[in-house]
Amino acid sequence: MNIAVLSDIHGNHIALAACMAYLEKQEIDAYCFLGDYIGEFPGIRQVMDTLYSLQAKKPCHIIKGNKENYQLSGLGEGHPEWDHYPSTVGMLRYGRQQLSKRDLTFLSSLSITDRIHVDGMPDIRICHGTQRDVREDMRPGGSQNGEILAGVAERYMLCGHTHRVMDIQEYGKVIWNPGSVGLPVISEGSMKAQLMLLHGGNGVWEPEFVALDYDIEAVIQDMQINGLYEIAPYWSRVTACILRGKQITLGRVLDRAMELCRQKTGKCDWPEVPESCWKQAYEEMKQA
């Protein structure tokens, strides 16, 4: 039994296409997608269509992530009062524009957690963040890991969200994170699309972590062609830096921009982060 596990695509259809080309050459019995199909890249339509196509061909286990919840909660719609904060809300709005009624109905039907059952094999708990919250991090040695895992009946658990490959055993559980297809967090080396193959036999699951080369500059060009540098100016520039291997994250730049906003105005309520603060945070961190 071989299960392909993919997470955090974030609309990067070029990276996803590289993964699909690789998986077509493998003996895959089922697919597992751990959420965040929408995000920083313009290929949301292609990503959604790939999910639908795979569902028609193979057993698929698909759950939702925080990016899907943002769209379903309406963060990507309306709010003209946010027009002055494109780096903060631009990609949310762009994502909503790419989603059809069918997409929204499909995404709303997804759970935040599920169980993979294969006859003769141990069950696997799957989630985006954790089984209780799509935005909760599961990291090695995390202070809440014991509490989180106490609520997991299965011995094996798959999660995404952190964009980091993980293979740990804690509190009698085995937890794997395949990393991110679209925007991995890496400490060194070149940016690659990450996925995992889960091999099952004789009552045991074994992971195989895979990292694939793809055309990074084609993704950045796709962002430019689709206007993302205007739709979400500094969010997109940070994303491009990450793709090119810069040790920077969107979360850190946003946190710094909000800190600068508080210093200048005395407060900072998301999403009201001025572009000037985004620009300063971006310039500081890309030089670090």
Could you explain the architecture of this structure?
- This protein is of the alpha/beta class.
- Helix content is 39%, strand content 18%.
- It contains eleven helices and ten strands.
- The protein has helices at 13-23, 44-55, 66-72, 86-98, 101-109, 145-150, 216-225, 228-231, 233-243, 250-265, 275-287, and strands at residues 2-6, 30-33, 60-62, 113-116, 124-127, 156-158, 165-170, 173-178, 193-201, 204-212.
- Helix 9 (233-243) packs parallel to helix 11 (275-287) and helix 10 crosses helix 11 (275-287).
- The chain is globular and about 60 Å long.
- The N and C termini lie far apart (45 Å).
Helices, strands, pairings?
Elements: E1 2-6, H1 13-23, E2 30-33, H2 44-55, E3 60-62, H3 66-72, H4 86-98, H5 101-109, E4 113-116, E5 124-127, H6 145-150, E6 156-158, E7 165-170, E8 173-178, E9 193-201, E10 204-212, H7 216-225, H8 228-231, H9 233-243, H10 250-265, H11 275-287
Parallel strand pairs: 1-2, 2-3, 5-6, 6-8
Antiparallel strand pairs: 1-9, 4-5, 7-8, 9-10
Q: How would you describe the oligomerization state of the chains in this entry?
A: single chain
> What is the helix content?
25-40%
Return the average pLDDT rounded to an integer: 96
Roughly what fraction of the amino acids lie in strands?
Answer: 15-25%
The low-pLDDT segments are none
**What is the CA-based Rg, rounded?**
19 Å
The topology string of helices and strands comes to EHEHEHHHEEHEEEEEHHHHH
Query: In which order are the strands of the major sheet placed?
Result: 3-2-1-9-10
Measured distance between first and last alpha carbons: 45 Å
What would you call the shape?
A: globular
Structure summary, number of beta strands: 10
Class derived from helix and strand content = alpha/beta
Describe the biggest sheet? 5 strands, mixed
The number of distinct helices, counting runs of at least 4 residues, comes to 11
